[in-house]
Design goal:
Helix content is about 25%, strand content about 30%. The chain has about 240 residues and is of the alpha+beta class. β5 and β6 form a beta hairpin.
Protein backbone atom coordinates (compact mmCIF):
# COMPACT_ATOMS: atom_id res chain seq x y z
CA UNK A 1 0.00 0.00 0.00
CA UNK A 2 0.99 3.62 -0.45
CA UNK A 3 0.35 5.27 2.90
CA UNK A 4 -0.42 8.97 3.27
CA UNK A 5 0.38 10.20 6.78
CA UNK A 6 -1.64 13.06 8.28
CA UNK A 7 -0.20 14.46 11.51
CA UNK A 8 -1.98 16.56 14.13
CA UNK A 9 -0.77 18.03 17.38
CA UNK A 10 -4.02 17.28 19.22
CA UNK A 11 -6.91 15.01 18.29
CA UNK A 12 -9.93 13.82 20.17
CA UNK A 13 -9.34 10.39 18.63
CA UNK A 14 -7.37 9.28 15.58
CA UNK A 15 -10.05 6.67 14.89
CA UNK A 16 -12.59 9.49 14.65
CA UNK A 17 -10.24 11.37 12.32
CA UNK A 18 -9.89 8.27 10.16
CA UNK A 19 -13.63 8.05 9.55
CA UNK A 20 -13.16 10.85 7.04
CA UNK A 21 -10.25 9.10 5.32
CA UNK A 22 -9.87 6.68 2.44
CA UNK A 23 -7.77 3.49 2.16
CA UNK A 24 -4.10 4.35 2.57
CA UNK A 25 -4.69 7.30 4.87
CA UNK A 26 -2.90 7.23 8.24
CA UNK A 27 -3.82 9.67 10.99
CA UNK A 28 -1.30 10.38 13.75
CA UNK A 29 -1.67 12.64 16.78
CA UNK A 30 0.89 13.77 19.32
CA UNK A 31 -1.92 13.91 21.87
CA UNK A 32 -5.36 12.31 22.10
CA UNK A 33 -7.94 13.82 24.42
CA UNK A 34 -10.51 11.02 24.24
CA UNK A 35 -8.63 7.91 23.15
CA UNK A 36 -10.46 4.67 23.82
CA UNK A 37 -10.33 0.97 23.18
CA UNK A 38 -12.54 -2.10 23.38
CA UNK A 39 -15.46 -1.92 25.79
CA UNK A 40 -14.81 1.83 26.13
CA UNK A 41 -11.58 1.51 28.09
CA UNK A 42 -9.60 4.74 28.17
CA UNK A 43 -5.92 5.27 27.46
CA UNK A 44 -4.10 8.16 29.08
CA UNK A 45 -0.84 9.23 27.42
CA UNK A 46 1.47 12.22 27.89
CA UNK A 47 1.67 14.41 24.75
CA UNK A 48 4.37 13.47 22.25
CA UNK A 49 5.64 10.46 24.17
CA UNK A 50 3.76 7.53 22.64
CA UNK A 51 2.47 6.54 19.20
CA UNK A 52 -1.24 7.04 18.57
CA UNK A 53 -2.31 6.31 15.01
CA UNK A 54 -5.15 5.00 12.86
CA UNK A 55 -4.78 3.51 9.37
CA UNK A 56 -7.56 2.96 6.82
CA UNK A 57 -7.79 -0.28 4.80
CA UNK A 58 -10.31 -1.06 2.07
CA UNK A 59 -12.28 -4.28 2.57
CA UNK A 60 -15.26 -3.80 0.25
CA UNK A 61 -14.45 -6.97 -1.70
CA UNK A 62 -13.93 -9.22 1.31
CA UNK A 63 -16.52 -11.36 3.15
CA UNK A 64 -17.35 -10.44 6.77
CA UNK A 65 -15.67 -13.56 8.18
CA UNK A 66 -12.38 -12.55 6.56
CA UNK A 67 -12.65 -8.94 7.72
CA UNK A 68 -13.25 -10.21 11.27
CA UNK A 69 -9.72 -11.64 11.37
CA UNK A 70 -7.98 -8.37 10.55
CA UNK A 71 -7.59 -7.17 14.18
CA UNK A 72 -5.29 -10.14 14.82
CA UNK A 73 -3.33 -9.37 11.65
CA UNK A 74 -2.90 -5.78 12.83
CA UNK A 75 -1.90 -7.05 16.27
CA UNK A 76 0.78 -9.25 14.75
CA UNK A 77 2.07 -6.26 12.79
CA UNK A 78 2.33 -4.24 16.02
CA UNK A 79 4.07 -7.12 17.78
CA UNK A 80 6.58 -7.57 14.94
CA UNK A 81 7.29 -3.85 14.72
CA UNK A 82 7.94 -3.70 18.47
CA UNK A 83 10.32 -6.65 18.17
CA UNK A 84 12.62 -4.52 16.03
CA UNK A 85 13.25 -2.28 19.04
CA UNK A 86 12.99 -4.80 21.88
CA UNK A 87 14.40 -8.05 20.45
CA UNK A 88 15.08 -9.59 23.88
CA UNK A 89 11.58 -9.07 25.26
CA UNK A 90 8.96 -11.80 25.19
CA UNK A 91 6.37 -10.19 22.91
CA UNK A 92 3.01 -11.98 22.77
CA UNK A 93 -0.50 -11.33 21.50
CA UNK A 94 -3.37 -11.33 23.97
CA UNK A 95 -6.59 -12.01 22.09
CA UNK A 96 -8.25 -10.02 20.74
CA UNK A 97 -6.24 -6.82 20.63
CA UNK A 98 -3.33 -6.42 23.04
CA UNK A 99 0.43 -6.80 22.71
CA UNK A 100 2.23 -7.79 25.90
CA UNK A 101 5.94 -7.49 26.59
CA UNK A 102 7.21 -9.71 29.38
CA UNK A 103 3.61 -10.03 30.59
CA UNK A 104 2.87 -6.30 30.65
CA UNK A 105 0.74 -4.22 28.32
CA UNK A 106 2.82 -2.54 25.62
CA UNK A 107 0.31 -1.78 22.89
CA UNK A 108 -3.26 -2.22 21.77
CA UNK A 109 -5.35 -2.29 18.64
CA UNK A 110 -8.93 -1.19 18.04
CA UNK A 111 -10.36 -2.03 14.60
CA UNK A 112 -13.66 -0.51 13.52
CA UNK A 113 -15.70 -1.06 10.38
CA UNK A 114 -16.46 2.17 8.53
CA UNK A 115 -18.51 1.53 5.39
CA UNK A 116 -16.30 -0.26 2.88
CA UNK A 117 -13.19 0.19 5.04
CA UNK A 118 -11.67 -0.95 8.30
CA UNK A 119 -9.92 1.54 10.57
CA UNK A 120 -7.04 0.06 12.54
CA UNK A 121 -6.42 2.23 15.58
CA UNK A 122 -3.05 1.48 17.16
CA UNK A 123 -1.37 2.79 20.27
CA UNK A 124 2.12 1.91 21.43
CA UNK A 125 3.80 2.98 24.65
CA UNK A 126 7.08 4.28 23.28
CA UNK A 127 8.83 6.73 25.60
CA UNK A 128 6.61 6.66 28.66
CA UNK A 129 8.43 5.51 31.78
CA UNK A 130 5.90 6.33 34.51
CA UNK A 131 2.29 5.18 34.62
CA UNK A 132 -0.74 5.88 36.77
CA UNK A 133 -0.71 3.86 40.01
CA UNK A 134 -3.68 1.73 38.96
CA UNK A 135 -1.85 0.34 35.90
CA UNK A 136 1.81 0.78 36.85
CA UNK A 137 2.26 -2.92 37.65
CA UNK A 138 0.69 -4.01 34.36
CA UNK A 139 2.08 -1.56 31.79
CA UNK A 140 5.41 -1.14 30.05
CA UNK A 141 6.98 0.76 27.16
CA UNK A 142 9.75 0.39 24.62
CA UNK A 143 11.79 2.83 26.69
CA UNK A 144 11.60 0.42 29.65
CA UNK A 145 12.56 -2.57 27.51
CA UNK A 146 15.52 -1.23 25.54
CA UNK A 147 17.02 1.98 24.20
CA UNK A 148 14.01 4.14 23.47
CA UNK A 149 13.34 4.72 19.75
CA UNK A 150 11.65 7.87 18.55
CA UNK A 151 7.92 7.88 17.87
CA UNK A 152 8.77 8.48 14.19
CA UNK A 153 10.94 5.35 14.07
CA UNK A 154 8.15 3.27 15.57
CA UNK A 155 5.65 4.72 13.09
CA UNK A 156 7.91 3.80 10.16
CA UNK A 157 8.33 0.25 11.48
CA UNK A 158 4.59 -0.05 12.09
CA UNK A 159 3.70 1.00 8.55
CA UNK A 160 6.26 -1.40 7.08
CA UNK A 161 4.82 -4.35 9.03
CA UNK A 162 1.23 -3.37 8.27
CA UNK A 163 2.06 -3.15 4.58
CA UNK A 164 3.73 -6.56 4.61
CA UNK A 165 1.11 -8.46 6.61
CA UNK A 166 -1.86 -6.73 4.99
CA UNK A 167 -0.50 -7.88 1.62
CA UNK A 168 -0.14 -11.49 2.79
CA UNK A 169 -3.63 -11.44 4.35
CA UNK A 170 -5.11 -10.01 1.16
CA UNK A 171 -3.40 -12.42 -1.19
CA UNK A 172 -3.33 -15.63 0.83
CA UNK A 173 -5.88 -15.17 3.59
CA UNK A 174 -5.73 -15.42 7.37
CA UNK A 175 -4.57 -19.03 7.15
CA UNK A 176 -1.19 -17.85 5.89
CA UNK A 177 -0.63 -15.82 9.07
CA UNK A 178 -2.38 -18.07 11.59
CA UNK A 179 0.76 -20.14 12.44
CA UNK A 180 2.67 -16.96 13.34
CA UNK A 181 -0.21 -15.69 15.45
CA UNK A 182 -0.69 -19.04 17.19
CA UNK A 183 3.02 -19.14 18.03
CA UNK A 184 2.81 -15.91 20.05
CA UNK A 185 -0.56 -16.56 21.73
CA UNK A 186 -0.38 -15.39 25.35
CA UNK A 187 -3.62 -17.03 26.53
CA UNK A 188 -3.19 -20.56 25.22
CA UNK A 189 -3.15 -23.13 28.02
CA UNK A 190 -4.24 -20.65 30.68
CA UNK A 191 -7.48 -20.78 32.62
CA UNK A 192 -9.43 -17.73 31.55
CA UNK A 193 -12.73 -15.93 31.89
CA UNK A 194 -14.06 -14.20 28.79
CA UNK A 195 -16.48 -11.32 29.12
CA UNK A 196 -18.42 -11.35 25.88
CA UNK A 197 -19.25 -8.12 24.05
CA UNK A 198 -22.97 -8.75 24.41
CA UNK A 199 -23.84 -7.37 27.86
CA UNK A 200 -26.55 -10.01 28.30
CA UNK A 201 -24.21 -12.91 27.59
CA UNK A 202 -22.83 -14.91 30.47
CA UNK A 203 -19.03 -14.94 30.91
CA UNK A 204 -17.29 -18.06 29.61
CA UNK A 205 -14.80 -19.84 31.85
CA UNK A 206 -12.35 -22.56 30.90
CA UNK A 207 -8.92 -23.52 29.71
CA UNK A 208 -7.92 -21.59 26.61
CA UNK A 209 -7.24 -23.79 23.62
CA UNK A 210 -5.70 -20.95 21.67
CA UNK A 211 -6.64 -18.82 18.69
CA UNK A 212 -8.50 -20.85 16.07
CA UNK A 213 -7.99 -20.73 12.32
CA UNK A 214 -11.03 -18.44 11.97
CA UNK A 215 -9.69 -15.91 14.52
CA UNK A 216 -11.97 -16.96 17.37
CA UNK A 217 -10.70 -17.88 20.84
CA UNK A 218 -11.24 -21.45 22.00
CA UNK A 219 -12.31 -21.54 25.64
CA UNK A 220 -13.53 -24.70 27.32
CA UNK A 221 -14.33 -26.23 23.95
CA UNK A 222 -16.35 -23.22 22.80
CA UNK A 223 -15.50 -20.59 20.17
CA UNK A 224 -15.66 -16.96 21.27
CA UNK A 225 -15.70 -14.35 18.51
CA UNK A 226 -15.83 -11.09 20.48
CA UNK A 227 -15.06 -10.20 24.05
CA UNK A 228 -12.38 -9.52 26.62
CA UNK A 229 -10.31 -12.27 28.21
CA UNK A 230 -8.92 -12.33 31.74
CA UNK A 231 -6.47 -14.84 33.15
CA UNK A 232 -8.12 -16.42 36.20
CA UNK A 233 -5.15 -15.68 38.48
CA UNK A 234 -5.19 -12.00 37.55
CA UNK A 235 -6.57 -9.56 35.02
CA UNK A 236 -4.47 -8.61 32.04
CA UNK A 237 -7.12 -6.26 30.67
CA UNK A 238 -5.29 -2.97 30.86
CA UNK A 239 -6.71 0.18 29.37
CA UNK A 240 -6.55 -0.47 25.66
CA UNK A 241 -3.99 1.70 23.96
CA UNK A 242 -6.02 3.54 21.34
Amino acid sequence: MRFRVHCREVSESTNLDARGGVPGDVFVAREQTAGRGRLDHRWLSPPGVNLTMSAVFGVEDLPPETVATFPLVAGLAVRNAARRFAPRAELLLKWPNDVLANGRKLAGVLCERNGDAVIAGIGVNVGQTRFAPEIAARATSLALLADAPSVEQVLDAMLAELDLLHGIWRQRGFAALHPQIAAVDFLKGKTVRVRQTDDDAEPIDGVCGGIAADGSLLVGGRSVYAGEAHVESGSFSLAVVV
